[in-house]
Amino acid sequence: MSNAFLQRILDRNRDWARQTTERDPDFFARLAEQQAPEIFWIGCSDARVPADRLLNLDPGQVFVHRNIANQVYQIDVNCLSVLEYAVNILKVKHIIVCGHYGCGGVRAAMERTELGLIDNWLRQIKDIYAANARMLDSESNADKRLSMLCELNVRQQVLNICHTSIVQSAWKAGQSLTVHGWIYSIRDGRLHDLDFWVDGVHDLNPIYQMLNVAEQSPSF
C-alpha cells in the first residue's frame, strides 16, 4: 500500500468532513456531546457489509461489533465487553445480529480444508451444520446450501446473545430489549428480516434461563 494511496484516503476524509459541516454546521458538535444509539449491531468483518451505510444512518446512531462470520461466543471477552457496554451503559433497545449471504467464513466452515487459527474460530459453525446436517445435505445446490447455513448461523448467534447473563439480567430488570436476526444480500444491497427475534427469557429453552440466587432451590 503506497503513501500516495493513504494520502488519498486522508484527502477523502477531509472532503467528507468539510461537506458534512457545510450541510449541517452543528453536526460534529452534537456528535461530540454523546452517543445515544438505540441499535447494537453484531455483524461480519467483511468490508462489503458496513452497518451504518446499510442502515442509512449517521455516525452515532448504531453501536457496532464485527468479527468473522458474526460469531458470539460465551468466552469471547471482547464481544461480551461490547455487549455489556451496549446493554448496561448505552441502554440500546435493539440488538441486531446480521449475517450475509455468501459469507466466506461460513463457506470455509462447510469445507474440510485446514486454514490455520481461523479453523478454531469457525468451529461453532461446523457444529451448527452437524446439528442440521439432514436438512442441509438434502439441498443439492451448493449456493442454496450455503445460504441456508448463513441463516442458521444468524439464528444460533441470536440465541447465544440471549443466553448471556448480560441480556437476561437486563430483561429481569425490566429493560426493553429485543434481539433480532437479519441477513444481508450483497448482490442487491437489501437487508432481510429472518423473523427470528427474542424479547425475554420466556422465549428461551428453560435450560438456558438463569435464575437469581434468591430464586434457586435451597441445597440440603
Question: Keywords for this structure?
Answer:
2 domains, about 220 residues, alpha/beta, 5 strands, 5-stranded mixed sheet, Beta-carbonic Anhydrase, Chain A
Number of DSSP helical runs: 10
Number of strands: 5
Poorly predicted tracts of residues: none
User: What Rg do the Cα atoms give?
Assistant: 20 Å
- By secondary-structure content and strand pairing, the structural class works out as alpha/beta
The amount of beta strand, in percent, is: 15-25%
Q: Outline, from the CA principal axes?
A: globular
Q: How far apart are the first and last residues' alpha carbons, in Å?
A: 66 Å
Describe the overall structure:
The chain is an alpha/beta fold and 220 residues long. It folds into 2 domains: 1-33, no CATH class; 36-201, Beta-carbonic Anhydrase, Chain A (3-Layer(aba) Sandwich), CATH 3.40.1050. It contains 10 helices and 5 strands. The protein has helices spanning 3-23, 27-33, 51-55, 77-89, 104-110, 118-121, 123-131, 133-137, 142-162, 165-172, and strands at residues 39-44, 62-67, 94-100, 178-185, 190-198. The chain has a 5-stranded mixed beta sheet. A hairpin with a 4-residue loop joins strand 4 (178-185) and strand 5. The chain is globular, with a radius of gyration of 20 Å. The N and C termini lie far apart (66 Å). 25% of the residues are buried.
Draw up the topology in text.
Blueprint: H1 3-23, H2 27-33, E1 39-44, H3 51-55, E2 62-67, H4 77-89, E3 94-100, H5 104-110, H6 118-121, H7 123-131, H8 133-137, H9 142-162, H10 165-172, E4 178-185, E5 190-198
Parallel strand pairs: 1-2, 1-3, 3-4
Antiparallel strand pairs: 4-5
